[in-house]
Amino acid sequence: MPEPIRLPPQPDACELCGRASTLTRHHLIPKALHDKPYVQKRFGKSERISATLWVCRPCHNQIHKLFSEKELALTYNNRDALLGDERLRAFVDWLAGKPAGFTPRH
């Protein structure tokens, strides 16, 4: 019997901005692309499912505002790659100084 796929446990704070806040699970490899051959060639099933980050809603919204699903799957599929984008890094650095309940107006 195959080993069950385990999702990372939920931390106490956003894995991008570090604020203690209500968190959502961001799939680093978008679920909508899991059945695409170019995704299946690069990532095994376990990796496609378990590659997630726990992020606050403002960080999650910003990720999807900046990147297409294909860009997320192929380029921005880990925390370091996301934070390597200067636009997202600037947003995260700005948001990190705000209180936990703060929601930016877009």
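[next item in queue]
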Amino acid sequence: MKTDIKNRSDIEKLINAFYDKIKTDTKIGYFFTEVAHVNWEKHLPRMYDFWENIMFSTGDFVGNPMAKHKELHQKSAMTKAHFQHWNALFDETVNELFLGEKAEEIKQRAANIATAMMYKTLG
């Protein structure tokens, strides 16, 4: 039975499942594995902090995701379709694991973030 997102443990569960999909995704996975060469041991805890802060206002995230995405775009051009695919995978993962008000909220926030990143990154 699915429950709503309640705490950091739930955020970690979501982010781990999401990035497991990303790592092998044929449309955008290469950005992470071949272009950015993501160090997952460092990246995942930063993503836990990011999303926990987004959902529960912890103030634990420090960083500039926009600058990272612009840098990545310079190395390998991103498109609107890439951002839309990222968002679809995120929503799919949330829907597989959670149900409730916070689950809907995180999907809406992810869509807003992806849209802002897309417009600022792509110009």
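[queue empty]
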